[in-house]
């Protein structure tokens, strides 16, 4: 059904995140899709040459040898409930790796852009003489700084997307499957009950 | 502007109206999952990144932005150019949080935050702040559109403004109530294509006029503007003003950059794509499109300064909203020629469509805040605190029994019915206020909407995603602290009283010198969240934070 919808809407299907679970219809979710290889060749830690593209899933690892993932698949959550799964995943080496990669890119980039733009505005109101200094032709320092910010935004967007595609997307997808499998392996009575009660006011299975 | 183009303008307005009605009609005829929240708030969640990128541009760039940014460049040169930079830089912040918002959220910002703190108080707080932002934004857009259209039609009477506001309000309500997000999205896409296409044609015409020589364009604009060299250096807008005015400028710049990531109608757009990766790609498209729009605004503004008679340009007010229409008349061969009249009519129609697409998106986001956050939480009051404290599981991955499914479906349809009523209520309120305020200067409301979004919505979002110790009290304090400080500071500022241009020129209760509260209220919002967290009785729930963090970064159990 999902495939039908997808082709109906002309969806591009080059998205590794794009899977049945994400948009799940009314049918129960059973086995993980066969497209996802469960066994992967271990990769050395440095993954600079990660040959991944957005298209398809070549047998590349996510940077950690299987033994170090800390997430033996199928292991039920320690707290014997669906929610106990999340702290276990959070503590796992693979997730720590994912979080580190995201934060190391996003936090400095966000801070740098904020400071850059505030500095630009501050210089404009506090030191207009500096910004009026000619650089080349009619272009002065202020206009050059403005145009440089345009270029910087485009560059950052491209770098961020590239970083996410090469360094995060696959790791996230694997963790997503493992988390969902662990949740399924240990559905606690409480979580099912509360899901049913919450479903009546804020949404449940479609 | 002569009245020669009025017929053509009205015809094109009619075309915009017909397209809006047709799109809504097509969207409303879909029977698949009709009436479900996924359909109404998220348009079915199956838009492609390209479509969503265009729709975000359509929902973000309003007529005041389209005409105003070029107008500021035309009037104030360098000081006007600054805004185009901030308009784009704001999207960096959106790009950096969009995947997490998409992974954790269902429809509104409160979904993201409520996943890790006590749901009810946070939903009520964020519902209040989001509705406030939306109503402020709606009033500013509707009043702005009324005066713009009246100006473009060449009539300065109150009737044109009143009718514009009424027609716009009726169309917006019709498309939201009957078409939901699907209709709003396609209206926004059509509008974005019109806007960017129109901007591109005009920019190319300007560049052709100068033989593609940007230096000649800038030099000619500086000479023709009457300011000479001063046109291209800082100072025309803020140079002679005191420190209050300069701080005000910084304040607005800060709100513009930080507020975009907290605007409810922008965040709502990310629920229309299936995955976090698709949401990221939508923002990539948006950055490309907004960037080219900003560059086109620069060209159009300098072109207007170079080609339009300076006195005419300054004659229409301090915002320069007529710069683009005047420029298109000049490019078409003069205001009285057929080409000039046609271009002016096209610009007016694009401005009309631009406002319509923006207000429809804002109304939809406001209705989601009312129905999904406020109404659902207030209705849950009777079930006691124990229920509210219980960990709310979102979608069960196991379909429950048939009876429960049916009950859930009817509850969800009930929520959509509430949302439709809420859309009518919010829309009617905004139209009513706009009619009362149609002669007033309400430009500051856009700045206030951005300030509230940056002070109340952004801190709580960032804390919820990145701060392990964040608690319910922190979230509630942060939202109310940012919201109340922004609104109070504006009420005590010169835009409300104490100056000839103020809302109440006769009264004077000014205590705060800046017109834009962002510089103070944004830090206050962050500070309130930090203090509230420190002063909480209990500590943060580590398990729930683990859930939020894992879900936000991996997409596990994303809907």
UniProtKB/TrEMBL annotation, chain B:
Spans through the membrane: 6-28, 54-75, 81-98, 124-154, 160-180, 192-210, 249-270, 282-308, 341-371, 417-437, 443-465, 477-497, 517-535
Pfam families: SSF
UniProt keyword annotations, A-Z: Cell membrane, Membrane, Symport, Transmembrane, Transmembrane helix, Transport
Major location (coarse): membrane
Keyword Transmembrane helix tagged: yes
Residue ranges the record marks as coiled coil: none
Membrane topology label: Multi-pass membrane protein
Listed CDD domains: SLC5sbd_u4 (cd11480)
Location of the region described as Disordered in the Swiss-Prot/TrEMBL record: 386-409
Compartmental location: Cell membrane
Family: Belongs to the sodium:solute symporter (SSF) (TC 2.A.21) family.
Full protein name: Cation acetate symporter
């Amino acid at each position: 059904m999902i495939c039908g919808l997808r082709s109906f809407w002309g969806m591009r299907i080059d998205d590794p995140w794009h899977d049945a679970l994400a948009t799940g219809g009314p049918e129960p979710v059973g086995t993980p899709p066969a497209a996802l290889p469960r066994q992967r060749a271990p990769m050395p830690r440095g993954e600079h040459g990660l040959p991944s593209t957005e298209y398809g899933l070549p047998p590349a690892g996510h940077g950690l040898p299987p033994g170090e993932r800390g997430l033996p698949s199928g292991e039920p959550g320690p707290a014997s409930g669906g929610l106990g799964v999340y702290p276990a995943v959070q503590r796992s080496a693979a997730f720590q790796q994912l979080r580190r990669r995201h934060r190391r890119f996003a936090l400095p980039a966000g801070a740098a852009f904020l400071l850059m733009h505030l500095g630009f505005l501050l210089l404009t109101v506090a030191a207009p003489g500096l910004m009026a200094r000619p650089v080349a032709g009619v272009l002065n320092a202020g206009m050059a700084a403005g145009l440089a910010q345009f270029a910087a935004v485009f560059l950052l967007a491209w770098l961020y997307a590239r970083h996410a595609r090469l360094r995060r997307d696959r790791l996230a997808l694997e963790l997503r499957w493992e988390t969902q499998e662990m949740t399924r392996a240990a559905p606690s009575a409480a979580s099912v009950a509360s899901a049913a009660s919450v479903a009546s006011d804020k949404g449940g299975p479609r | 502007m002569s009245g020669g183009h009025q017929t053509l303008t009205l015809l094109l307005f009619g075309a915009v109206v017909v397209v809006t009605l047709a799109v809504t009609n097509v969207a409303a005829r879909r029977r698949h999952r009709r009436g479900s929240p996924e359909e109404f708030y998220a348009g079915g969640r199956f838009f492609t990144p390209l479509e969503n990128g265009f729709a975000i541009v359509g929902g973000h760039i309003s007529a005041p932005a389209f005409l105003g940014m070029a107008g500021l460049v035309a009037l104030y040169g360098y000081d006007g150019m600054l805004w185009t930079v901030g308009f784009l830089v704001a999207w960096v912040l959106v790009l950096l949080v969009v995947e997490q918002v998409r992974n954790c959220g269902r429809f509104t910002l409160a979904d993201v935050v409520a996943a890790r703190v006590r749901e009810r108080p946070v939903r009520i707080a964020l519902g209040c702040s989001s509705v406030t932002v939306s109503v402020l934004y709606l009033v500013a857009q509707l009043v702005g559109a009324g005066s713009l259209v009246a100006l473009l039609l060449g009539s300065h009477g109150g009737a044109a403004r009143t009718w514009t506001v009424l027609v716009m309000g009726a169309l917006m309500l019709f498309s939201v109530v009957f078409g939901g997000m699907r209709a709003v999205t396609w209206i926004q896409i059509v509008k974005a294509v019109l806007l960017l296409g129109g901007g591109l044609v005009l920019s190319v015409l300007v560049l052709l006029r100068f033989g593609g020589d940007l230096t000649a364009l800038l030099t000619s604009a500086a000479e023709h503007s009457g300011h000479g060299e001063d046109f291209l250096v800082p100072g025309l807008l803020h140079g002679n003003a005191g420190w209050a005015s300069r701080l005000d400028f910084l304040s607005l710049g800060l709100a513009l950059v930080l507020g975009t990531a907290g605007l409810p109608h922008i965040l709502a757009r990310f629920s229309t794509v299936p995955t976090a990766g698709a949401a990221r790609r939508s923002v990539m498209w948006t950055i490309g499109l907004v960037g080219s729009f900003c560059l086109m605004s620069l060209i159009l503004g300098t072109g207007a300064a170079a080609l339009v008679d300076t006195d005419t340009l300054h004659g229409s007010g301090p915002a320069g909203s007529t710069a683009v229409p005047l420029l298109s008349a000049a490019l078409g061969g003069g205001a009285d020629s057929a080409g000039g009249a046609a271009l002016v009519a096209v610009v007016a129609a694009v401005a009309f469509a631009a406002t319509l697409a923006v207000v429809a998106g804002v109304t939809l986001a406001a209705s989601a805040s009312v129905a999904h956050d406020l109404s659902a939480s207030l209705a849950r009051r009777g079930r006691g605190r124990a229920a509210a404290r219980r960990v709310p599981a979102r979608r069960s991955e196991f379909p429950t029994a048939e009876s429960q499914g049916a009950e859930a479906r009817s509850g969800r349809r009930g929520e959509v019915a509430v949302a439709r009523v809420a859309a009518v209520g919010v829309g009617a309120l905004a139209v009513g206020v706009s009619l009362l305020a149609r002669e007033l200067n309400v430009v500051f409301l856009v700045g206030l909407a951005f300030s509230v979004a940056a002070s109340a919505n952004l801190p709580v979002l960032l804390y919820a995603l990145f701060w392990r110790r964040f608690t319910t009290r922190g979230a509630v304090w942060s939202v109310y602290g940012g919201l109340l400080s922004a609104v109070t500071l504006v009420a005590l500022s010169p835009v409300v009283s104490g100056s000839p241009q103020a809302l109440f020129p006769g009264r004077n209760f000014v205590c705060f010198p800046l017109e834009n509260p962002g510089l103070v209220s944004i830090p206050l919002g962050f500070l309130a969240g930090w203090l509230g967290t420190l002063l909480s009785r209990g500590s943060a729930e580590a398990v729930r934070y683990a859930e939020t963090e894992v879900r936000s970064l991996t997409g596990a159990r994303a809907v």
